[in-house]
Write the structure tokens for this entry.
Amino acid sequence: MDALAGLPLAYSVRNIRVEPNLVLAPMEGVTDLTFRRLIRKIGGAGLTVTEFIASEGLRRGAEKMEEMARIDPDEHPVAIQIYGRDPTSMAEAAKIVQDLGADICDLNFGCPSKKVCAHSGGSALLKDPVLAQQIVRAVRAAITIPLTVKMRSGFDSTQRNCPDIAWMCQEEGAEAITIHWRTRADLYSGTRAVDKIAETKQRIKIPVIGNGDIVDFASAVAMFRDTGVDGVMIGRGAIKNPWVFKQVRAQMLGLPCPAVDAEEKRHVLVDYYESCRAWFRSDRGALGRMKKISNYFTHGLPYASELRTTILRSQSVDAAIEAVNMYFDNLAEWTARGGTNRLDGSVAEEGDAAPFA
Ligand SMILES: Cc1cc2nc3c(=O)[nH]c(=O)nc-3n(C[C@H](O)[C@H](O)[C@H](O)COP(=O)(O)O)c2cc1C
């Protein structure tokens, strides 16, 4: 069968067209404005989502939360995600999200963190359908923009109840549901099981977006084929490879996968570092974020561990940029001498000089 036949290319959340139907996942400490700008610049994502924002903090006007909720005037469509357990606070925060210009307000019913679950937020709501329903109802009544919910497939293997929770959300006025196939108990391990996503898609009328371990065209197609979802969401795969949306999109249209060369990688990484410097307004804050992203981004690069170590040891943004430039200069030289000419993780041959030597 033609791998592309029948694959959806877009979906709509009421009047919001998500095309391509590839969504950047919300990721705390990652998908701030600087990272979302990087993804938008490269292209291929049809919707971006902020990291989760505490409803309590947002409604109290906490500066940090307002900063986290900042969106660019031309960043559309964009969803702002909030979490919490108090329906009134969630409703007030959702109203702020709407006033800030978000196209969509997304509720987090999936966070596995102990801190969030201990207060019955995030994935703990999957175990408390009554409270979950009160939250969706209160938020729905407070805003006019589309409301969506992101969840895990359940709390643990004995309670994989996302079809029920998704159905409840739909009946209360939610307009799309994203499901990460793992349960809360799985954290980030577990064996791929997307059956509950497929079941939810069968059960509800609003769009369902599939999430979990999508890193390329093959894994995106597998999610579409195995579940019938309307769109897919990509998280960690986009930190490792911010070109993933562009690449998956091209292949969904039957085009070749766009190659990414070393110079483009260098340019994007240095550009990102400069954005962090401007955003955090201090080397300390910027370095923390840069180191986190670099850990993912450098995966698959030859001798990446040496580059990572050097970045981790950097005491200033300038030093980190110098390390990146030196790495790519050395890599270019090494490539010219016959080393691997693709940054696709090909293993260097015995005796080759390391690009970072
Ligand atoms: C560093 C990190 C932070 C995350 N923060 C959030 C968050 O703020 N809100 C949320 O709904 N999910 C969050 N997630 C979960 C992701 O959105 C996504 O569901 C999960 O990583 C699975 O998708 P992936 O395999 O494509 O990464 C986070 C994941 C990671 C790795």
The chain has a mean pLDDT of 91. The pocket of flavin mononucleotide is lined by residues 25-30, 51-52, 81, 108, 110-111, 150, 180, 211-214, 234-237 (CB under 6 Å).
